[in-house]
Amino acid sequence: xxxxxxxxxxxxxxxxxxxxxxxxxxxxxxxxxxxxxxxxxxxxxxxxxxxxxxxxxxxxxxxxxxxxxxxxxxxxxxxxxxxxxxxxxxxxxxxxxxxxxxxxxxxxxxxxxxxxxxxxxxxxxxxxxxxxxxxxxxx
Length: 139
Description:
This protein is an alpha+beta fold. 34% of the residues lie in helices and 18% in strands.
């Protein structure tokens, strides 16, 4: 009796999205490290990486990247990411890095500032940068 191999179904759209997001995170990490600028991944990608490390395949993917940086580093960050194909933009009160060849707020790197509240209604400020993980440490 012969057995027929069962096809393995892969969600290629999801896999491509993960690859694209992590590629963007890698380019960002490379630029910020080269510029000597400290940052922390926060928000949905941070949650995804944490969940994936503790329970692989249980994470829910986000479309963007949120990072905490120091406001004083903003000009240096904007210069550092240019060679990686990213541009700084400030749109509708939001600071972000968009891909120069395909700018999209939904797929941007959103910047929040250490020691500041993201929105006036928030009770707490974004924690100061001290220790922690970079994107390299998360994967």
